[in-house]
Write a structure and sequence with these properties.
Elements: H1 16-28, E1 35-36, H2 51-61, H3 76-87, E2 99-102, H4 105-114, E3 121-126, H5 130-140, E4 146-150, E5 156-157, H6 159-167, E6 172-178, H7 190-203, E7 206-210, E8 235-240, E9 253-258, H8 264-280, H9 286-295, H10 300-322, E10 328-329, E11 338-343, H11 359-368, H12 376-388, E12 390-391, E13 393-394, E14 404-408, H13 414-433
Parallel strand pairs: 1-12, 3-4, 3-6, 6-7, 7-8
Antiparallel strand pairs: 2-9, 4-5, 8-9, 10-11, 11-14, 13-14
Helix pairs in contact: 2-9, 3-9, 4-5, 6-7, 10-13, 11-12, 12-13
Length: about 450
Amino acid sequence: MRQLLLRPGAEELNYEIRGIVKKARQIEALGYDMTWENIGDPIQKSNKIPAWMKEIVADLVSQDHTYGYADSKGMLETRRFLAGLNNAKKGAQISAEDILFFNGLGDAIAKLYQFLIPTARIIGPSPAYSTHSSAEAAHANTSPITYRLDPDNNWYPDMEDLYNKVKYNPGIVGILIINPDNPTGMVYPKEVLQRFVEIAKEFKLLLVADEIYQNITYNGYEAISLAEVIGDLPGISMKGISKEFPWPGSRCGWMEFYNKNASVEFAKLCATLENAKMIEVCSTILPQLAIPRIMQHPLYAAYRKTANAKIGRRSQLMEDILSPVKGIKFNRTKGAFYNTIIFDETLLHDGQHLPVEDARIQVLLDAWLREKEMPHDKRFVYNLLASERICVVPVSSFCSDLRGFRVTLLEEDEDVFVDTFERMAKSIRTYLKSNKEVAVDA
């Protein structure tokens, strides 16, 4: 080409959650079934949408007006409904004008970072959800800035690490909170959220909360929203229906702006995001129309309670199976539907492997492992894929120095779920023993 095509930072856009699928498809092409643990898609994992929910969508589809444009900011009746849900929490109050719809949270996240100047940084958690960290890095033309989540303290944020990074990096203009967290499944208690607010207040920062899993909690835990603790600080909450209904294919998410006029710069950002949506005309109308009707349905609360309880039970089954395995650690999840397993890095070495029965798959694995400077957890993930046809995601791809992998708690068939994690446990033991320099008791 006569000129470079990509601006600096564009190569930071990486999504290993989907990227590993390309390798899994190579194995599928050889005639094997795959166990997908790489992505939080409830539909893929045998989740059945209740008939009453389908009836609501079917009725909307039969109405002509659902085929037209929505208001640029989103359907007014739906925004009023969502504002009411927020305001019932007695925290920061909003109106329909403080809500802006997007084509899924991926769209919302991309838009947020797109309009920030490159020197304006939003510090996020590590391990980090890839969509946030990649978008932030791409906008800044450099690596993302992160604060540490501590696996030895329930995956709670290392507040000293966060405070010092904010204090000594004046480019940081905001803090990202993911609660409940992806990829760790942690739900933050009120005192942790209040500490975020204190730091933001001291340094005059914007708070951004990804709360798409807000209503997916279990085992006695509930999530506290940003609106309940933010006070008079500027903030954005990101929400959606992809996981909760669940309807991931709807691509329907929204931002809620808190205290829009608390800062001139924040008000400009909100206005810019709204103008950008006007240029696009609108987001998808059908799921927006469905939101009030589904969430106000008399069966919805019970449906969500039952679904959450099932995830909670699976979290316990996973703990029962993996807890006896030496060389790994994890925390019991409280929300969302993921868990992150961390290896004792002293037990990881080049040359560790899992048995692969099919020589054709071994050829594929050998080619994958030629990648330069491959993190040890990625080596394990590729071996697991080749040996057991279980597709998970390495923690190193979540912008983390830790080594491990993320799994989902979504499989509705309990026998399949148990079998998957028993095979996973066996593979971890075999892998860690496979290097003669290392001896680990089973």
